[in-house]
Design brief:
Chain lengths: 369, 369
């Protein structure tokens, strides 16, 4: 992966000069926008055919998808609310991917982060809200970070496949959450819905002023941009990508690969842990089994669709947030089953992965070299 | 296609989401065309909890002047808040039925505060004085129907060993297990109920394992309290055991094995609610009842049920329907030998102590933790 190829922001900054060599000079960048865009259109077209087979008008489908996801200010807020946790959980997969690791355990880091954040808030009953919120952020990120670092450590020191271990750690995290919520941390008043005590209305972080969208979106944007800078514009990020490209070469030039792996896994888990903290502090107000809503798993999809690029995660998360926001409208207006949204997500995934084969093969974009 | 209507009516609102509260408030509470929104946590054809509500929604669809919109598989996160808002903003719903227990706090409370002119009816019986007045929570004493199931099961079992596949050891579930067992011991004082907790509301694999394990231990009549009894009913019938259903009538799944079952009667309650609103009556915020109030019912007996069992069950059912029968009447000891309801104490249907139930009565084999 070359630096300029993964840098759409840079491409956007350059004014589109209309000289003859433009397509060739920026071919790689254009590919990175054109190919996923075409894959998305192809997926939508195929989904339209699928819906037509059910006797529904595909034009209705496209209209309601647009209307439910982006058609009104309310729809936009709905989309952004759903996108917020996905940006953070996607980073949990995208960051380790720079090192060539496939981590799919963001859900576990989210749950542990939520538990840790709740624990921090409940341990500080009389502290001022800002202090409690800071403690929750730190605890959430620490909890989630250590959780994924565990998977990274198992891979680096014990040779355990990180994909499998991070996935299995999700179920351990869920079991720990259920155990604590139904036992030591249970609010005795939560009779039929075992939950922890509430963190208190004063400690909730609320919404971005003028909207219904909670602050998790801003956290996500900051984390995504910071990750981008870290990966592509720092020595640390360069070292991580070198190790991801060729571990032996990295060791020969004297890079401490263990340290890189553990740090990147920690940062990845911290992002998902932060998503868990936000779910508690902005949405649920306490921890219970509701937190296992699958944001961690959808984040994997987002990261792969964004080709593990932290900046590309933002539009992809908004796209998937929009699909999920419009899913309800598709059920209500077209009578499509809930699973149709999953079918669309699956089709997009397959199209985007299959379109990988096109990179560098589009004739008119090829350089003269 | 009704794009024209949507765009005129709603696209304008999109730009001015902040004024929506007043826009919605201006709409009369129940105009000629009333839109009612139903939200389910699982799929609406699950032969269980969600299907029971969908049957209630179907009863409303038959009434003139009502439009019912439905959305299934909505998680208990801010997704349900957005679904409610979407039904209000995009579909014009004025009465909402978020039917899952975990939708109530904080999600439905938040929406009820945000849209004070609209009515929210939640299933779970959670409303308290602190909650908004336009929010209501209803529930049924389905343990009365489980008691009848227990009587039938007690007569039908040859081994005297009954099985109960349960989700979580929370008061509501324990009350069903205990009522079922007390009913069975009316018929056969030596009957025992072996209970297995799966740990969550929808765990088909564990439910199948629990069913098989119970039958392996000599259990020949089973019932359950999970969201979708389908797995238990089909597996038990395949193994030659008999079943008592839960939530809805599952006899189509196992016509020969189905004895009877404890069902919700939402198709009677929901039209009643709508008629009350249309007549200008206030629905009590906290609305509960059992067989007498027609909120729960008992499935018609299957062909395997003996005349003796029918007579005894019908007799008790008549008494419960008349409101002069108490199921939890002392002396009752738990399965560790401790007296939980003293001799001479009667804990009737509405007794608040029963809401905190944390024991299994004598005759139940199993533990709450």
């Amino acid at each position: 992966m070359t630096t300029d190829a993964a840098d759409p922001a840079e491409a956007a900054a350059i004014a589109p000069a209309a000289d003859a060599g433009f397509l060739q000079r920026h071919g790689t960048t254009i590919e990175y926008i054109l190919i996923p865009g075409a894959a998305l259109c192809g997926a939508l077209a195929l989904f339209g055919v699928f819906v037509a087979l059910f006797g529904k008008n595909p034009l209705d489908l496209y209209f309601y998808m647009y209307y439910g996801a982006f058609g009104t200010w309310f729809s936009w807020q709905n989309t952004l609310t759903r996108a917020a946790p996905l940006i953070l959980t996607a980073l949990c997969t995208a960051l380790p991917a720079q090192l060539g690791m496939v981590i799919i355990g963001g859900e576990g880091a989210l749950l542990i982060g939520a538990l840790a954040a709740t624990g921090a808030a409940l341990a500080l009953p009389s502290a001022p809200p800002l202090a409690v919120q800071m403690a929750m952020v730190c605890a959430g990120m620490l909890g989630g970070g250590l959780w994924i670092m565990l998977a990274g450590g198992l891979r680096q020191f014990r040779g355990v496949n990180e994909t499998i271990s991070s996935l299995l750690l999700v179920y351990i995290a869920l079991a720990i959450l259920n155990h604590l919520v139904e036992g030591a941390m249970r609010d005795p008043a939560s009779l039929n819905k075992p939950s922890t005590r509430e963190i208190g209305a004063a400690n909730m972080i609320g919404s971005i002023p003028g909207t219904d969208v909670h602050w998790g979106l801003v956290f996500g944007l900051i984390a995504a941009v910071a990750s981008y800078i870290l990966i592509y514009h720092t020595v640390f990020g360069f070292a991580a990508r070198v190790a991801g490209g060729n571990v032996r070469a990295a060791k020969i030039v004297g890079l401490n690969v263990s340290k890189l792996i553990l740090t990147v896994c920690f940062l990845a888990g911290a992002a998902a842990g932060l998503a868990g903290m936000v779910e508690v502090a902005a949405v649920q107000g306490r921890t219970n089994a509701n937190l296992a809503a699958g944001y961690g798993f959808t984040g994997i999809l987002v990261a792969f669709l964004a080709r593990q690029n932290p900046l590309a995660i933002i539009p992809v998360a908004i796209l998937l947030g929009g699909i999920s926001a419009s899913g309800g409208l598709l059920q209500r207006r077209l009578g499509l089953p809930d699973a149709s949204v999953l079918v669309l997500q699956g089709i997009i995934f397959v199209f985007v992965l299959a379109s990988d084969a096109l990179y560098g093969r589009i004739g008119f974009l090829k350089g003269k070299a | 296609m009704d794009f024209g209507r949507i765009s005129r009516r709603h696209l304008l609102q999109g730009g001015a989401a902040l004024t929506l509260g007043t826009a919605v408030g201006a709409r009369s509470a129940f105009a000629a065309e009333t839109t009612i929104g139903f939200i389910y946590v699982g799929s609406r054809d699950d032969y269980g909890y969600n299907q029971a509500h969908a049957q209630g929604a179907a009863a409303l669809k038959k009434m003139p002047g009502l439009k019912v919109v439905e959305e299934e598989k909505v998680p208990e996160t801010d997704a349900v808040e957005k679904t409610m808002e979407s039904m209000i903003n995009l579909d014009g719903a004025t009465l909402l039925f978020p039917t899952s227990f975990g939708y109530y706090n904080p999600h439905m409370i938040k929406m009820a505060n945000k849209f004070p002119k609209l009515r929210f009816q939640h299933c779970g019986g959670l409303w308290s004085d602190k909650d908004p007045k336009n929010a209501g929570s209803y529930f049924g004493y389905i343990d009365e129907a489980q008691y009848i199931s227990g009587i039938v099961a007690g007569y039908s079992s040859k081994t005297g060993k009954l099985g109960f596949v349960a989700a979580k050891p929370i008061p509501q579930v324990l009350r069903n297990i205990n009522a079922f067992t007390l009913g069975a011991r009316l018929a056969n004082p030596k009957a025992t109920t072996q209970v297995i907790f799966t740990g969550d509301w929808s765990m088909p694999v564990k439910e199948a394992e629990a069913t098989n394990s119970l039958i392996d231990q000599g259990v020949d009549v089973l019932t359950c309290h999970v969201d979708g009894p389908k797995t238990m009913v089909e597996n038990a019938a395949r193994r030659g055991a008999m079943v008592c259903g839960y939530h809805v009538n599952q006899s189509p799944l196992a016509p020969k094995a189905y004895l009877t079952g404890a069902e919700w009667n939402w198709e009677a309650l929901y039209p009643k609610f709508v008629k009350m609103i249309a007549a200008g009556e206030a629905i009590p915020n906290f609305y509960r009842g059992g067989l007498k109030e027609e909120i729960v019912k008992v499935s018609p007996y299957g062909e395997a049920v003996s005349a003796e069992a029918r007579k005894h069950a019908d007799d008790i059912k008549a008494k419960l329907t008349a409101g002069d029968y108490v199921i939890f009447k002392g002396p009752i000891t738990d399965n560790k030998g401790k007296v939980v309801i003293a001799a001479g104490t009667e804990r009737g249907q509405k007794d608040a102590e029963l809401e905190k139930m944390d024991y299994l009565v004598e005759g139940v084999i199993g533990a709450t933790s």
